[in-house]
Design goal:
The chain is α+β, with helices and mostly antiparallel strands. It has 2 domains: about 300 residues, Electron Transport, Fmn-binding Protein, Chain A (Pnp Oxidase, Chain A, Roll); about 120 residues, UbiD C-terminal domain-like. About 25% of the residues lie in helices and about 25% in strands. The chain has 13 helices and 23 strands. The strands form 5 sheets. Strands 5, 6, 7, 8, 9, 10, 11, 14 and 17 form a 9-stranded antiparallel β-sheet that branches. A hairpin with a 6-residue loop joins strand 7 and strand 8. Helix 4 packs across helix 8 and helix 6 packs across helix 7.
Length: about 500
């Protein structure tokens, strides 16, 4: 399990560059749509991460920020590199790495100063438009500041820090409108501040060690601080500095930090959305939502803005961190026989496939209940598919075969649960069930598909006294015979990669 000495965006970019996974875009690119369109084209073709160094309107000497980077976690290979491996790792290796590191907590340390305070902007000098905030998509409601912005808040009662990834739209020179969901980490903090009649302090970290982006988007138990987890991933304490205008701490080597307060007063709300979300659909309608009143912008000299196309990076890291969270939930619940979990990146964790050595009938429903009852299920596990130990959960054909021939849709092999908390961004759900100002979150109907062989059938002597008929596949000795005699068959122009 590697320890990588990042804790810094620039060092991480150099690491990607050395491995051929970073491309510099030196020609002029317009922040208004063109940047997003180019990034989308590159990522759709499985291209590298991008560093834009010539952004229209941000080229003048003395520009507050002239560079933007995106796509750092946008492939399994880049995710592996950012973890510290020297090349792409298989899904199971990454899952085991995440499980081990999530348990390896190293508390942060407070330091007196750091590069993030090389420049401090307050009062009338604050202007968010001095940052190269893109209009990522033609249908977005505006320029989105927070797409890969890690938001720091603190529980006013326990003082526990939460670091999460949330979205924010530029609403004015010193204001950002945000999607604030009550069931998420900072949503719980906001509810407590609202009850106290006080605004909530926030700090938005735009650009730091990419491990922060991964950990901040990973569901952790409420008693766990993400800074402790980040320290565990890198094997040493995260160095933090105190913010200038809010009672919070942020990474000392961050590129940009936006400090501010979120008021619970409905009169301060602004329109936010829609946004081209990770679902690859437009998320919702313009809605009045809470606003961050910015009190300071601090940044390094020549800072690099960090942003992302929604869904491009989260598809890959979401598959790993939501899978790792599921492993942890099922292990903590004491459910036996869990062999593997797999999430196809395109689903962003909405669908999870769990492979088990079945111990008893009804076990798949127990698995679904444990997952649905956890905080990891906020945006995930809408569809839980459970398969036997002979089905590779990462093999789409094998899973589909199991669903088709081990599932009786008319039985309780398929069970739904209605009205469960879920994603407010899912376009398959009516808008009234995604009304976060009224409901606090989205409401899902979740489903578990028990694609294991049922134990309710009688045993049959014709099937070797088993309850399910034997599969019509080669035995290992059959495959060995074919492999040994392959050259004798004289098959022209084709040979299998492996047997």
């Amino acid at each position: 399990m590697p320890d990588r000495d990042f804790f810094d965006l620039r060092t991480a970019l150099e690491h990607l560059d050395r491995h051929g996974e970073l491309a510099r875009v030196e020609g002029e690119v317009d922040w208004n749509l063109e940047l997003g369109m180019l990034a989308r084209e590159v990522q759709s073709r499985k291209g590298p991460a991008l560093l834009f160094t010539n952004i229209k309107d941000y080229q003048a000497p003395g520009a507050r920020c002239a560079q933007l980077t995106t796509g750092l976690l946008g492939s399994t290979r880049r995710l592996s590199l950012m973890f510290g491996f020297e090349d792409e790792q298989p899904n199971r290796t990454l899952m085991e790495y995440v499980l081990e590191r999530n348990r390896r907590l190293v508390p942060p340390v407070i330091v007196d100063r750091g590069p993030v305070h090389e420049n401090v902007v307050t009062g009338k000098d604050i202007d968010l438009a001095q940052l190269p905030v893109p209009q990522w998509h033609r249908l977005d409601g505006g320029r989105y500041v927070g797409t890969m912005g890690c938001v720091v808040t603190k529980d006013p009662e326990s003082q526990r820090v939460n670091v999460g990834v949330y979205r924010s739209m530029l609403a004015d020179r010193d204001k950002m409108a945000t999607l604030l969901v009550r069931s998420q980490g900072w949503g719980g903090h906001f509810t407590k501040y609202e009850a106290m009649g006080q605004p909530m302090p926030t700090a938005w970290v735009l650009g730091w060690d990419p491990i922060m982006d991964f950990v901040a988007s990973t569901p952790h138990p409420v008693e766990i601080c993400e800074y402790d987890v980040m320290g565990g991933y890198r094997g040493r304490p995260v160095p933090l500095v105190k913010c200038k205008t809010v009672p919070l701490e942020v990474p000392a080597t961050a590129e940009i930090v936006i400090e501010g307060f979120v008021s619970p007063d409905p009169a301060t709300m602004r329109l936010e959305g829609p946004f081209a979300e990770f679902t690859q659909y437009l998320s919702d309608l313009p809605t009045m939502r809470p606003v961050v009143q910015v009190t300071a912008i601090t940044h390094r000299n020549q800072p690099i803005f960090r942003g992302t196309l929604a869904g491009v990076e989260s598809a890959y890291y979401g598959a790993i961190h939501r899978g790792g969270a599921a492993w942890n939930v099922l292990r903590t619940a004491g459910i036996p026989g869990i062999l593997d979990v797999y999430i196809e990146p395109i689903t962003n964790g909405t669908t999870i496939i769990v492979q088990i050595k079945k111990h008893y009938e009804g076990q798949p429903k127990q698995i679904a209940a444990a997952l649905w009852g956890s905080n990891a299920a906020n945006y995930a596990y809408k569809r839980v598919i459970v398969v036997d130990d002979d089905i590779d959960p990462s093999d789409h054909d094998a899973v589909e075969w199991a669903i088709n021939y081990r599932v009786d849709p008319g039985s309780d092999d398929v069970v739904t649960m209605r009205g469960v908390f879920g994603s407010p961004l899912d376009p398959s759900i009516p808008l009234e069930l995604r009304n976060t100002p009224e409901l606090g979150t989205g409401l899902w109907t979740r489903v578990v598909i028990d694609a294991t062989r049922t134990w309710r059938f009688p045993r049959r002597p014709e099937w070797n006294n088993e309850k399910f008929p034997p599969v019509s596949r080669n035995r290992p000795e059959d495959s060995a015979l074919i492999r040994d005699r392959w050259d004798q068959y004289r098959i022209k122009k084709w040979r299998p990669d492996t047997f």
